[in-house]
Amino acid sequence: MEILVEFLGTTGFANLTFGNVLMIIIGIVFINLAITKHYEPLLLVPIGFGVVVGNIPSIASMALGVYDEGSVLRYIYFGVTSGLFPPLIFLGIGAMTDFSTMLSNPKLILLGAVAQIGIFLTLIGAMYLGFTPEEAAAIAIIGGADGPTAIFLSAKLAPHLLGAIAIAAYSYMALVPVIQPPIMKLLTTKKERLIRMSEPRTVSVRERIIFPIAAFLIASLIAPGAMTLLGMLFFGNLLKESMVTDRLAESARNSLIDIVTILLGFSVGASTQAQTFLTPQSLLIFGLGALSFAVATAGGVLFAKFMNLFLKDKINPLVGAAGVSAVPDSARVVQMVGQEEDPHNFLLMHAMAPNVAGVIGSAVAAGILWSVMVK
Amino acid sequence: MSGDFSTMNPLQFSVQNIIDGQAIPIAITGMGIVFCVLALISLFIALLPKLTAILGRFFPETEVQPSAPKTSSNDAVLAAIAYVFHMRRR
C-alpha cells in the first residue's frame, strides 16, 4: 500500500500545475493550427508536440526533461543550445534557394537590408523595457523573421529566453499573412500598388556559381560573426548551383533539413516549460516580436517608395515588405496584396529578391549583435 | 541551465537602460554595417555580368553537365498519356 501511495505521488497527475495544463493546451492549439489551418505545419507540429511533452511533470530522481542532465531530450536539445542545428538548417535553405531573381535586379537587395531596421529598433525598445543588452539582442533578432537565426543568437546570448524567443519567432512567421497586409496597404497608395515591374534578366550559370563564393567573402570579412550561418547558407547554394553535387544538394534540402527541423522543433517546444514560459518577460517578448515585424515591414515598404524618387524603372513598394526574411511567405503576401489590385500583376518573383536578401541581412545582423555582445 | 526565470531581476522601464546599454550606438552601427554589406553585395552583383564577360574571354563558358543523369519522373506520365491516346485511337 505504501508503495502504491508513493507511486501515486510521483505521477504526472499529482505534480501537474495549472501552468503545465495551460502550456499543454497551448501545445495542442499549435498542433491544431498546423493541421487545420496549415499554419507552418512543418514547424508547429514538432513545436506543439514538444510543448506537450515538455510540460509533463517529471520525477525528480529521473533524468527525463530537457533540462535534466543525461536525459534523451537534453541530448537532442544540445543541438539547439550549442548552436549546431540552425547552421545545418541554413545549409538546407541555401540548397533550395534560387538567388537568380536577386542577381537579376540587385537594387532590390537594399530593401532586404533596410527591413532589418526592425531588429535594431526593437533592440532599443527591449533595453528600455529593462532587458539586459544580451537579452535585448536575442529578442530583437525576432524581427529578422528567421527562426534558425533567432535560435542561434538566443542560444549564444540568452539561452534562458530561447524557448520564448523561438516560439515568438515561429509564431510570427506563421502570422505573416495576417500582420503584413494592413501595414502594406496603410503605407501605399492604390496607384503605387498597381506598379508593374519589368521582367528580370536571365542570369548565367557562371554568375550563379560565383555569387555564393563572393557574397560569403564580402559578408563574413566585414562581419565575421555571421560566418557560421552565411557560410552554411552559401555552401548549400553552391552545392545546388555547381550542378556537380546534385546528390549533396538533394540531401541538404530534403533529408538533412527535415531531420534537423524535427529535432529542433521538438526540443525547442519541450524547453518551453510553464515556469520558464508563462512569465511577464515572455509576454513582453511576444509584444516586442510583433513590433519588430511591423517596423521591418514598414521599413522595407517606405524605403521602396524612397528609392522610387530616384528610379526611372519604378519598384512596386509592396515588394519592400518582402525584405522581412520569412521565405517565401512574405513574397507570397506581396503577390497576394498586389493581385487584390491587379490580378495580372505578378510580383512574386520580384519579391523573392528582397526576401532572400533579408535572410542574408538578418544573418549579418545576428553576427554583428553576437560580436558586439559577446564577452 | 535550469531555464528558471525566478532568479532574474524584475524589469524596470527606463531610458537610462538605453544609455547604459549603448543601444543607440549599437543600433546605428549595426544597421549601417548591414546596409553596407548588402550594398556591397548589390554592387558586386551589378558588376558581375561585366566580370563574367571578361572571364568568358579567357575561360569560355562550357555546358556544365549535371553530375547524375536527371531521372525523369515524367516517364510514367508520358507512358500513361501515350496509353490513353492509343486506347482512344482503338
Quick description:
The complex is a heterodimer of chains A (375) and B (90). With 375 residues, chain A is mainly alpha-helical.
Task: Report what the structure shows.
The complex is a heterodimer of chains A (375) and B (90). With 375 residues, chain A is mostly helical. Chain A has one domain. The radius of gyration of chain A is 22 Å and the shape is globular. With 90 residues, chain B is mainly alpha-helical. Chain B has a domain of 52 residues. Chain B has 3 helices and no strands. The longest helix of chain B has 36 residues. The N terminus of chain B is likely disordered.
Mean pLDDT of chain B: 78
> In DSSP terms, counting alpha (H) and pi (I) runs of 4 or more, how many helices of chain A?
21
Major sheet attributes of chain A: none
Find the structural class of chain A using helix and strand composition.
Answer: mainly alpha
Helix content of chain A: over 70%
Quickly count the domains of chain A. Answer: 1
Number of beta strands of chain A: 0
Radius of gyration of chain B: 30 Å
Give a count of the beta strands of chain B, DSSP E runs of length 2 or more. 0
Tell me the overall shape of chain B. elongated
Biggest interface reads: A-B, 63 and 52 residues
- Distance between the ends of chain A: 56 Å
Tally the helices of chain B: what do you get? 3
N→C terminal distance of chain B: 74 Å
Kindly report the oligomeric state of this protein: heterodimer
Give descriptors for this structure.
heterodimer, A: about 375 residues, mainly alpha, 21 helices, about 0% strand, B: about 90 residues, disordered N terminus
